UniProtKB/TrEMBL annotation:
Gene Ontology process terms (BP): leucyl-tRNA aminoacylation
GO cellular component term of the entry, any: cytosol
Top-level division of the source organism's lineage: Bacteria
Motif range ('KMSKS' region): 911-915
Name used for this protein in its record: Leucine--tRNA ligase
Amino-acid positions noted as binding ATP in the UniProt annotation, renumbered to this chain: 914
Entry-linked InterPro entries: aa-tRNA-synth_I_CS (IPR001412), aa-tRNA-synth_Ia (IPR002300), AB_hydrolase_fold (IPR029058), DUF559 (IPR007569), Endonuclease_DUF559_bact (IPR047216), Leu-tRNA-ligase (IPR002302), Leu_tRNA-synth_edit (IPR025709), M/V/L/I-tRNA-synth_anticd-bd (IPR013155)
Amino acid sequence: MEEYNHLKIESKWQKEWERNKIYQAKNLSKKPKYYSLIEFPYPSGDGLHVGHIRSNTAMDIISRKRRMEGCNVLYPIGWDAFGLPTENYAIKTGKDPRIVTKQNSNIFRKQLKSLGFSFDWSREINTTDPKYYKWTQWMFLQFLKKGLAYKAKMIINWCPKDKIGLANEEVVNGCCERCGTAVEKREKEQWMLAITKYADRLDRDLDNVDYLPQIKLAQRNWIGKSEGAEIEFKIIHPTPALPEGKGEESTKIVILHGKHGTPENYFYPWLKKELEKRSHKVYLPALPNTEVPNDEEQADYVLKNVPLDENTVIVTHSFGGVVAMRLLERGIKIRELILFATPITGTFLDKKSRPSITDALAKGFNYEKIKKQANFFRVIFDSGDTIVRKEDAVILAKNLGIYSEYVKAKEPHFCAIEEPEMLNLILEENTYPLTPSQGEGEFGYHTTDPKTWRALQERVLEMRKNPTEAEKKLWRYLRKNNLTPALPERKGENADGYHFRRQQIIDRFIVDFVCLSEKLVIEVDGDIHDYKQKEDKERTDILRILGFKIIRFKNEEVLSDTDGVIKKISEELKVLPFGEDLGGVTVFTTRPDTIFGATYMVLAPEHPLLSRILLDTLANKKEVLQYIEVARKKSEIEKTAENKIKTGVELKGIKAINPATKEEIPIWIADYILATYGTGAIMAVPADDMRDKEFAEKFSLPIIENYQKAGFEDFGKKITKFKLHDWIFSRQRYWGEPIPVIHCEKCGLVPVLEKDLPIKLPKVKNYQPTENGESPLANIAKWVNTKCPKCKGKAKRETDTMPNWAGSSWYYLRYTDPKNSKAFASQKNLKYWLTPSLPPPKGETLSFSLPFGEGQGGVDWYNGGNEHTTLHLLYSRFWHKFLFNLDLVPTSEPYIKRTSHGLILAKGGEKMSKSKGNVINPDDIVKIYGADTLRLYEMFMGPFDQAITWSEEALIGPRRFLERVWNLQSKVQKKEKNIKIEFLIEKAVKKVSYDIEVMKFNTAISTLMIFTNEIGKYDFISQGVYEKFLKLLSPFAPHLTEEIWSNLKHKDSIHLSYWPKWDENLIKDEAIKIMVQINGKVRAEIFAQADEKEEDVKKKAFLNENISKYIAEKDIKKIIYVKNRLINIVF
RNA sequence: GCCCGGGUGGCGGAAUUGGUAGACGCGAUAGACUCAAAAUCUAUUGAUGGUAACAUCAUGAGAGUUCGAUUCUCUCCCCGGGCACCA
């Protein structure tokens, strides 16, 4: 007998099969049809991957089994050839992608053929073939016609250096994959497909398909259907909260005065008072020895008399700064150091006359250390009434290592800071909010503390009684006009117009008019104000800090042009935060019942509210802007972030009203809220939601433990939301299907006429996109300039192309009728291949079940990579459903059954990639071991749905097995029978048949191996048994089995023979081994007949020597009996 | 951070779905054949102790449920894949 020569056998049979066309599917055959599908490969320059072979072999095995079961099988192949790598290769080398695609697919075809897959090559398709993409374009026109294709502005990744839009895949760590430039976001008009219109059906219909559970889950997660409610929260400017003397919890502020200062002079008492008003505990120690400054002594004094801790802020001036730094140098930790200093350097002014921070500089402090002791360190340059140059301040800031943005010197040469501004600076950049007041005020607002109110009340009443002429007139106008707001749906206090009050006490001031809800103060000034501008400025500044906007009018202005004044006031009201654009914020929640527990609101950093409100009205505008900026950048690198720590910033100065509890709750922005999902805003329920709880704990927000549950729709409207976005369908690339649309100057967007399809891709010299990011097609004037199909006037072609998902969304339909030039496929063929077959002819049974039902059907079995279980699968389901709606396909779903395979990893568990140089070339293996060995190995190496590591050494196992099978030929005898072997083969038929159906190829092969090992022990094997065995092996190793089959004098191919059936009677074991356990441990085994009576088996067990030894004189508590398996005796 | 897989000998992996843990293959060791090697065939091969029969320990770690757990439940650790923190 000849040796097993795989080279000879494999090429021989591949040619023979091609000649006999045994794998060609027959349209409209009477046999039951079976459509098995693999994801058609992208013909990359890397050649066939061992991963392709894994999936192709699996479906090949199933297809071959189906043929042997009597089916008319369609197992097609083609090329998904549009794509980035080919385009990038074209950009790099200037080679025509058409030629590259042809070369690559030629290599792939040859490689695939060398593996003996039973593809119907006569139906080969290619998405880049104009005869194919004509229909892709045609389908796009149908989407357009039905209004499902539209244009929208979308944000894309943009590489500023390459001037090209980037796919997500091409962005690595926020940088362009090719040139490493940081990727920017850009807005661009894009074609979109409205897949969201089908979201609900895409979700629901998963009930009717046979996908692996993980795949269904992935689809459902991606679609992300959730039922919840939208609830509107009113946004308000909270009342200016004025303190009620609660100071215990507030920050301690220590004011250290300067060399010439005492607690009684300069601005110190004023500053102390103002800060105390705002609930802060303020210390103003009288530093000794100010005449002869000794900073160490003074530091000792402070330490002795003033408590300093990490909640302390030291505000210093001049020489006080030196004392403060002495303290910090001693290792004392404080929260913040604010230093007002005079920046005198060089020769500009007489140093000696001005004690300053420059003195401290001369003392050689360790500033790095000092800066670490305070969480914040700010130096604010203030020259008092001295004139200094700003440049000097900047130089000094540099010397101190302080960012120059802290320099508060004013242009051009004067940097004196006035007291209100000083207060402003201390508070504005500080982290202390104005403390909200407890309880209700006279009008539902607190505008001052009770003490001040009592003190000023009488004066207010008097003023109201005796208004000036101007005040009188304006008051009348304000009441009469009511300044009706633009939005009729306004609710609450301002429903009938803005509510004004006159002579209202705010803080320690009495303002002329105020609209509290909008925080607008109107002052009417007499001539006297010209003389006290300074006081007015202070008043204005303080009111501003409290969140008010102030407009001033002169008496005569009010009297002479009252209408003009009213007009100005209404204009101010319009742009104020509570103007027409700012009614509220709608949140989406899946748990509207938890609304009573909502203690704060969180917005996405990109939430539109932030553009609607005046950021100026936020107390921490700078911080908020900074956060938004950081969040914007973060979104570009978030994928690479290892640990996502929750971050956020409160919008200080506005509040939301919980519609259930009517309480004012804080509003935060945080990037754990996505702008794209829901409404980009949530109500946070820390008591019930883990994420909210985490966030609340991090930022010390209150957490309610118990709260009342609400009904589902008590406070909002029930709504169904989907995570799914519409499909961005444009690419500014060359290598894709041109979108068949024309831009006409007169008619606008005009679809290309169907008779003009396909719009072929023109040849270009340069595959680079244009300077402004348009597709390279935009550069070909000859192609771009065209006539409008409607008016025949001047028009331009759309230069965007389609994504490569387009062609792959419907390719399985084209296989049924690949050469049709009248339609994408004939209805006849579609119906035959997609709708379930009639039951098989009488006497025949199928080992698999066929689905029946209205609109049901599709590709019978579709296997592909796990990486495609969301996007590709969803896109093609959407596309198919759209065609079904148009009555163009007979089923509502494209695939009846979907499975996925795991990756093949290189040694060390890495992904195979050309750059790592760890790619396995299947050609070498086919040459050395043979295609049958490679196929067998890939099926044997591990569970099909899991990732497995490639191992070259293990290949020898399957090869040895095939050689053993080959050598068995010499043992074949026609007549003899062997009962033991009959039994084994029947068992193998059952096991292999079953395992193939559930893709447990590895155990199917091990069954076949066990069988050959057993046979090896005998001198002969009957031909019948051997042939059955060969049939079982034939889907795995088609060449070898075909050769032996022909050696056994068969004329027809083994692949056209019938799949063996097993006889259940022959499989029944006559004697069954039963384990006998004592207390759960196996102590003996006994034999029993199948289904023998429980009592008899127990008797046998007790008679066993070993067992009787164990149970002697023991109290048996319990005997557990498992039929045909074990007895467990417990004591 | 979230979701989905997974973790079993020197290695790839089996285990009828709660019932003998380690099928099958690779590798390793010994033997047969051979002048020899390769190939092939035969035997052994989770660990520890024991001449042996056998015993004990072992499925990432720890707990729990159970007569019995690789399998179910909880907590934690590690690896792989995916991602849009999905409210």
